[in-house]
Amino acid sequence: MVLTGTLWNLSSYEPLKMVIIDHGLQTLTHEVIVPNSGWEPEPNEDSKPRDAEWTTVFKNTSGCLRNVSSDGAEARRRLRECEGLVDALLHALQSAVGRKDTDNKSVENCVCIVRNLSYHVHKEVPGAERYQEAEPRPPGGSGSAQRRSREDAGCFGGKKAKGVWAAPGLHLTLHCPFVPGKRDGETDQNSDTLDLPKRTEAAKGFELLYQPEVVRLYLSLLTESRNFNTLEAAAGALQNLSAGNWVWATYIRAAVRKERGLPVLVELLQSETDKVVRAVAIALRNLSLDRRNKDLIGSYAMAELVRNVRSAQAPARPGARLEEDTVVAVLNTIHEIVSDSLDNARSLLQARGVPALVALGASSQSVREAKAASHVLQTVWSYKELRSALQKDGWSKARFQSAAANARGPKAAPSPGGLDDSTLPLVEKSLDGEKPGGRDMIPMEALGPADGYSTMDRRERRPRGSDPAGETSEKEPLKGLGLAVCS
Q1: Which residue ranges have biased composition labelled Low complexity (predicted)?
Q2: How far apart are CA 139 and CA 148, in angstroms?
Q3: What distance in Å separates the CA atoms of residue 11 and residue 18, rounded to the nearest whole number?
Q4: Burial class for 127, CB neighbours closer than 10 Å (0-12, 13-18, 19+)
Q5: Which residue among 103, 242, 271, 276 has its CA within the 20 to 30 Å range from the CA of 428?
Q6: What is the 8-class DSSP label of residue 365?
Q7: What pLDDT score was predicted for residue 341?
Q8: 255 sits in which H/E element
């Protein structure tokens, strides 16, 4: 116990992270993580799955691996390819969900590790190039607008995401929405479907990180846990998995909708914890690349997003103002869902979003916030169909142009479109004066157009305010987690 606690402490020191991976990863995985997780590499047919054991040794070891998983691409590769590690971590998390024991430190460590390992899966896992798409594409769906609206409302209903998660081994079809009045297994011919690739054997190892079935596990954590670090990490995992232009991200976006995950995320926009709101907002932005998700988020999440814009100006309680990174994340999510969607822009007007955006742009001391608010306003004004309603409410083109002029400044950056990737092991303190998390931090050398943002470690951190346009966003591990306290 003392040894693993010492390793946890040492693992927060940058120069030792790869040393620990080189000399201790296999031993820590096979001697501590796997045995305590309850996962069995070769279970007997008649054996009952074992639950994880939340021992101090497991907590210390998972904390150590949480730290070292933030050390960059090579560290992620080594952990992903460590036999049994991903399987054991996911089994432990499923055990926690099954026992409704999701608030302890070991669960927090495990979900932070898998979030970190989900960062850049669309680029880094072996064979990823075979699954790349030229452009992100939503699953198709036919039928009238009235029928789709009714079905989408059904898909958005129901907040609980429960059930047993299992490694996929079958050819699955995601059907969403579930049409009211239909029996199990009966689907409407106009509901959207998404066929997953056929598998000859069950997924295992790092493949489990991006299988659509893992969505249910993360949604269960988001529903059951009251640990804000666990909530941020689970939302960050969905953020990572729904970023990138490969087919698995398309499946993940559809799976979140199929599993009724959108209302779970929207409810968390009400969280009093800044980092949870930020992670959820960016996840919703990534998920909105799916057109059906975009329509649903515009209809059902707009009021909560606008409420967060208002709270940036007038916090509900003293000292509760959202951090700049969170406000910008919310604004960029609004910008994404109103872009190329007249209906969503109308939803913004109905939620009284324009006065909130104008007020924020005029009062905020942050150039980034003002710039992001200005981009939303300009997008709304670009819809000629809305100008009559805007002018009726007293808004003019000159007023919108004034908001844009006020937002100009040396640190301003264009509001990015597309998606965000997020993978950070949650940290309580900033490093060197930098805030952990944030959609604008991405590896300089790693990203191309329409790819992923990330919350970066210090070595790869991108200058603030340099948000590239048209990219998805990922969240990567931040270095230097809190040290273990050895007893």
Answers
A1: 403-412
A2: 13
A3: 9
A4: exposed
A5: 242
A6: S
A7: 96
A8: helix 247-258
